[in-house]
Amino acid sequence: MLLLLIMEGEPVNVNEFQELARLALPKMYYDYYDGGAEDQYTLKENVESFRKIALRPRILVDVSRIDLSTIILGHRISAPIMIAPTAFHKLAHPQGEVATARAAAASNTIMVLSYMSTCTVEEVASSCNAVRFFQLYVYKRRDISAQLVHRAERNGYKAIVLTVDAPRLGRREADIKNKMIAPQLNNFEGLISTKVDHDEGSNLEAFAKGTFDASFCWRDLGWLRAITNLPILIKGVLTREDAIKAMEVGVDGIIVSNHGARQLDYTPATICVLEELLNHETYALGHVLQTSLFRLFTLLEEKFLFSLMEECGEEQMSSRH
């Protein structure tokens, strides 16, 4: 409450929530949420590319009844906005991903639970009736990945979101300087340790390097299809060639994403590659501020779904739905 009083009235847009986060969070945590890879060129482009989109309004159209709802993999949601997989929610909110899932339920949208969640698959599933997808990275120990998939299935998750743009963690210089330490990841309890033996640079980067399977490629998708009956979405597509390849191997959809500019710097802004992919069932993920959301909808019409990260808690998200 004290932080809310710093501003004149309650925050009314994403920029003001971001400023509150900067004031409230320890520097290590804020920098983790806020930063991009290397020079952060793509991070800046993600934002600036939206600002260059101009509206072309049409007048004298009946807008007295507006329906933004859409259907994603058979699930109707209230608008083409869903919650993207983001890690470590308890760094910003005491209830972590449980609060985020409840906000998704209240807003009638889909939450994609991060593999690096601070609440377990089971805790999030039992917290509310939100439609949930589960994000998967493939690890060197495939049995760990398989166990996570099976837990998601048993607990009612409706799709697997396979993130493919992180064979190694991006070089996030703020995390290296801050010696970023991953919080307790309860999904991995009894499976793998998230602790790192040294204190040089980002412990999170060291954990990812020792855990992620950098050899995973197109031919390995058959392994994932063989262990689950859930729909599979591939997250991290930026080219038409890869979109076509995904279609050929039989995935159920793709998520166009440069990982919030947190993986490989100097890739194009997500919005700049969407036109190239218009002929495919596609979901769009990127870093967007304020009115850019509305401009995204006008640009994409019904072809795409926008995924939004929300860290301010279920009450704030629900009240702004």
UniProtKB/TrEMBL annotation:
<feature type="binding site">
    <location>
        <position position="257"/>
    </location>
    <ligand>
        <name>FMN</name>
    </ligand>
</feature>
<keyword id="KW-0288">FMN</keyword>
<feature type="binding site">
    <location>
        <position position="137"/>
    </location>
    <ligand>
        <name>glyoxylate</name>
    </ligand>
</feature>
<comment type="similarity">
    <text>Belongs to the FMN-dependent alpha-hydroxy acid dehydrogenase family.</text>
</comment>
<dbReference type="InterPro" id="IPR008259">
    <property type="entry name" value="FMN_hydac_DH_AS"/>
</dbReference>
<dbReference type="InterPro" id="IPR037396">
    <property type="entry name" value="FMN_HAD"/>
</dbReference>
<feature type="active site" description="Proton acceptor">
    <location>
        <position position="259"/>
    </location>
</feature>
<keyword id="KW-0285">Flavoprotein</keyword>
<feature type="binding site">
    <location>
        <position position="262"/>
    </location>
    <ligand>
        <name>glyoxylate</name>
    </ligand>
</feature>
<dbReference type="InterPro" id="IPR000262">
    <property type="entry name" value="FMN-dep_DH"/>
</dbReference>
<keyword id="KW-0576">Peroxisome</keyword>
<feature type="binding site">
    <location>
        <position position="163"/>
    </location>
    <ligand>
        <name>FMN</name>
    </ligand>
</feature>
<dbReference type="InterPro" id="IPR012133">
    <property type="entry name" value="Alpha-hydoxy_acid_DH_FMN"/>
</dbReference>
<protein>
    <recommendedName>
        <fullName>(S)-2-hydroxy-acid oxidase</fullName>
        <ecNumber>1.1.3.15</ecNumber>
    </recommendedName>
</protein>
<dbReference type="GO" id="GO:0010181">
    <property type="term" value="F:FMN binding"/>
</dbReference>
<dbReference type="GO" id="GO:0042742">
    <property type="term" value="P:defense response to bacterium"/>
</dbReference>
<feature type="binding site">
    <location>
        <position position="172"/>
    </location>
    <ligand>
        <name>glyoxylate</name>
    </ligand>
</feature>
<dbReference type="GO" id="GO:0005777">
    <property type="term" value="C:peroxisome"/>
</dbReference>
<keyword id="KW-0560">Oxidoreductase</keyword>
<feature type="binding site">
    <location>
        <position position="235"/>
    </location>
    <ligand>
        <name>FMN</name>
    </ligand>
</feature>
<feature type="binding site">
    <location>
        <position position="32"/>
    </location>
    <ligand>
        <name>glyoxylate</name>
    </ligand>
</feature>
<feature type="binding site">
    <location>
        <begin position="85"/>
        <end position="87"/>
    </location>
    <ligand>
        <name>FMN</name>
    </ligand>
</feature>
<feature type="binding site">
    <location>
        <position position="259"/>
    </location>
    <ligand>
        <name>glyoxylate</name>
    </ligand>
</feature>
<dbReference type="InterPro" id="IPR013785">
    <property type="entry name" value="Aldolase_TIM"/>
</dbReference>
<dbReference type="GO" id="GO:0003973">
    <property type="term" value="F:(S)-2-hydroxy-acid oxidase activity"/>
</dbReference>
<feature type="binding site">
    <location>
        <position position="135"/>
    </location>
    <ligand>
        <name>FMN</name>
    </ligand>
</feature>
<feature type="domain" description="FMN hydroxy acid dehydrogenase">
    <location>
        <begin position="6"/>
        <end position="276"/>
    </location>
</feature>
<dbReference type="Pfam" id="PF01070">
    <property type="entry name" value="FMN_dh"/>
</dbReference>
<dbReference type="GO" id="GO:0050665">
    <property type="term" value="P:hydrogen peroxide biosynthetic process"/>
</dbReference>
<feature type="binding site">
    <location>
        <position position="114"/>
    </location>
    <ligand>
        <name>FMN</name>
    </ligand>
</feature>
